[in-house]
Hints:
This protein is about 30% helix and about 25% strand. It is an alpha+beta fold. It has a single domain (about 5-150), classed as 7,8-Dihydro-6-hydroxymethylpterin-pyrophosphokinase HPPK (Alpha-Beta Plaits, 2-Layer Sandwich), CATH 3.30.70.
Amino acid sequence: MANVFWISAGSNLGDRAANIDRAFAMLAAEPGVSVEAVSRKIETEPVDVPPEYRELKFLNAAARVSAGFEPHHLLDLCLRIEAALGRVRPALRNSPRPVDLDMVCGMRADGSWIEVCDFPRLVLPHPRAHLRAFVIEPLREIDPAAAGRLLERTPAGKAR
Length: 160
């Protein structure tokens, strides 16, 4: 049985909608991965960006993805997709990008929530996702339970 992951996508460079669509299509094309649901795209104001980039609005969406492998493998896949679509790392923190894919939470096939603390590489659930409407709103559209799980998190990332 596969694990389920919820991925937040954002873009503020180029054809933002096409960038997000391509990223999710590339995920779906990977053996062992199924994109089960995708939210609508919403336009959002940039958060925590350098002043010179504040005019570049984001387009954001979320996807529910099942994958027959572990979180670190999916993270590596997301990073490869970002690079293939033109994201350059390292770059100035929160600088413009064609696409950003963040794993926000995951659930094992047995129904248990995946918890990973491999800071700074991967932390699940994402420690700031519950504070970001641009993550929660698209996620709520495709999976209210996953959004609720994230909203139960405190700012320190600890379950209440």
